[in-house]
Amino acid sequence: MALKKIPFRPGIVKETTNYANEGGWFDGDKIRFRAGLPESIGGWKQGVKGLFKGSCRSMHDWVSLDKNRFLALGTHLKFYILWGSTFYDITPIRAPLADIEIDDPFQTQGVESSILIVHDQDHNATKDDFVTFSGATGFDAFTPEMLNREHQVVQVLDTHHYTIDVGTPSLAAGVSGGGPDVWVEYQISTGLDFAVPGTGWGAGPWGGSPLEGETHPPPPKPEWVGWGESYTFESVDLMPFSQIRLWSQDNFGEDLFFCAYEGPIYCWNRTGGLETRAVLLANVPGAQEVPRVATVVLMSEADRHVVALGCSPGALDILDPMLVRWSDQEHWEEWRPMPSTSAGELRLSSGSRIVTGLRTRQEILIWTDKNLHSMRFIGMPYVFSIVLINEAVSIISPNAAVNAGGRVFWMDRNGFYSYTGQVDELPCTVRDYVFSDFNFGQQAKVHGGHNRNFQEVIWFYPSKASQEVDRYAIYNYVENVWSIGTLERTCWLDIGWSAYPMATAQGRLYFHEYGFNAGEDPMPAWVQSSDVDLDDGDSFMFVRKLIPDVHFRGDAQEQALGLTLKMRSAPGGSYVNDARYQVTPLTRTCWMRARGRQVALRAESNSLGTAWRLGVQRFDLQPDGKR
Predict the structure, then answer these.
(1) Beta-carbon neighbour count of residue 552 at 10 Å?
(2) What was the pLDDT predicted at 577?
(3) Disulfide: which of 121, 242, 255, 573 matches 568 by Cβ 3.0-4.6 Å?
(4) Where are the domains of the chain?
């Protein structure tokens, strides 16, 4: 029988059955579609050798006037600026340097234990907070160098005592020391890395200390929940995004401003240097009525106003979740609405809280829990106008919106959407696959990103079996096709001053689309088609040979792609009689013997330096009887 081409439609389709999707691709990992053909994605490598502390969920890059390139990273424990290959800690200080009133504030906990008890009246620290000591003298097995540095709180014992781990075992138990002149400095309280939708006593942020400037308490436990019991929110709409530490940030010229979700606004002045920590914007010289807390802060770039979404009015500490305020033009410290300033405020009336905002070329989009608004600069005397765009859409997380290709894309709790002046739902061939296996308890971790070199928008999200991001969905907005896969990335930033997209996971910064390996290891990539049959499945088929059409793109000397024909007799049956063949750049024909009523093609690789694009395969197929 003559050779038969079997072309497959581009894109992964999971909305139908495998058999109903005949002629298409049904599953895959670490692959994308380009010009209608599947290929392995680019690899990655660690961008800098150093590590940062915590899970990063916000990155922002900018370039100073003297061409220095900066990258700001916000984690649930710290806030950093990367310059060169060093992470500089600019985490703000909650309580400035102060003398501990009690002499010898350190006490050993036990023999050969590295845990020290610290006695400090009304310390207001929480677990995992960072504290720095100075002026301490050595005692027991601990030298001054071991004590006079930054430590992390291991456990809070009460309002006056907590423990730290010095890393060196003590010689005796119950020994006090440190001297009479120990000074202490507390950084702002750390945030949570995991949301706790079932919140009972002691769960979530219950009992935690607010950031400096925050006065609103965490949501109270219902009266019907007993001690140690938990309860679950009836709707994910009630899930507080402020449970985990999320940051928003932007640059004002050379300087940086940022805030934790529903927290104070901080600023870092570039002229102070990288050894200088960020400070409260409300405390900078000349600051007037800066919002004490805000949900999101960003820059209205063309007119250069700093905008605070879901913030406190005036100089009050109470959060108004629907209030929008902006600073005076070119002055980020002046927020008083006066005839001599362009500062002002507007309050949204539809919805109950602002979730997030995103700056686009001509407007700022603002999502509430129920709708989408557009904020535009109109000049004096009103400065900005806000109009309602859509009343039936929200967003699944504060970081789920992406500005790409002249459009805005985002992920909601039941689908994917785009905005081009009007809101449209994206046709999605993997929608049920994503949302039927999605951990809504950790929905605040969803992070969207743009990969402009491949015209792709990517969303990282947690599956049901994971508390952390472990999967992704990619939408190619030029070819309108989807692909899926598994990968842990907590944050993504498209190419800016870096020639590669950057992403983070487990304290590491990665450059993506770099080579074809997963760091130092091979990157497994595979794609599998839906089933194909002969004569509508009326006949069994015999596959005698395959003429492969594979383009190898990698730089390894010996590359190989595994091609497998998976045969079965019915749509619900198991695959049998797999015919496997290793294709190399020199392979011209794959001889094989495979029988079945249906056949699926699987291509996979898992070797260093291998990258491939799969073309149109030709098969020698002929009707055959079942034996």
Answers:
(1) 18
(2) 66
(3) 573
(4) 4-43+523-624, 56-91+241-512, 93-187
